Amino acid sequence: MAAGLRDVMKNGLYSIHVTLLDGRVGKGSGVILFRDGKILGGDAYLYYTGSYTVKDNNSFKGEVLVQRHTSPRGDDNPLFGGPAPVGIGVTGTFTDTRGQMTGTALVGKASQIFGATLHKLADVD
Fold first, then answer.
1. Distances (CA, A) of 2 to 5, 6, 7, 36, 87
2. What is the distance between the alpha carbons of residues 31 and 10, in angstroms, rounded to a whole number?
3. Low pLDDT (below 50) residues in the chain
4. Is 70 in a helix, a strand, or coil?
5. Partners of 59 in beta bridges
6. Contact predicate 23/118, CB 8 Å
7. 12, 14, 42, 99: least CB-packed within 10 angstroms?
8. For 5-123, CATH number?
């Protein structure tokens, strides 16, 4: 393998499943694209943009901005889904097909800690 190829997370489209931690209740899921240091994704109400860097051969850190694209209906309550954008710091580990991620979202004046699992759906060049 050429030098430097192991220093990047495998580009791809992943499903993301988020669970709030620290005694809070909440779940969410969507899709997220990791490509050459950029993060893009979304779900039914929110979209995510950001960037990441690889810290070693199987871990990464990054920043994501979550913004609402559609107002929730009925009792729907999307995670981090207020009308104001939410900044999130994340760290995680990855293999060729899966990842684990934790992060802290600053929602208003409250911090929300979460965990997420990533499952690779498709390769992206």
1. 6, 8, 11, 16, 35
2. 15
3. 1-7
4. coil
5. 56, 93
6. no
7. 42
8. 2.40.128.380
